[in-house]
């Protein structure tokens, strides 16, 4: 992906929504569903549901770690 100039900052556009979900402590299923949508629908990737769930679990720990 690094060789595709248009995609270099693609992930930056996802941060505000994910940040808001984490700060508002949205339920796990909502975070997972959003990440899964990004991965499979928006980006058109095959996806790995288990990996997405694991990543969501890690993200959801961040607000507690910074408090």
UniProtKB/TrEMBL annotation:
This is Uncharacterized protein. The lineage of its organism: Bacteria, Pseudomonadati, Pseudomonadota, Gammaproteobacteria, Chromatiales.
């Amino acid at each position: 992906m690094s060789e595709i100039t248009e995609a270099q900052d693609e992930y930056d556009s996802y941060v505000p929504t994910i940040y808001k979900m984490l700060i508002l402590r949205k339920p796990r299923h909502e975070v997972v569903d959003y990440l899964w949508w990004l991965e499979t629908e928006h980006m058109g990737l095959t996806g790995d549901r288990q990996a997405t769930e694991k990543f969501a679990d890690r993200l959801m720990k961040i607000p507690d770690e910074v408090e």
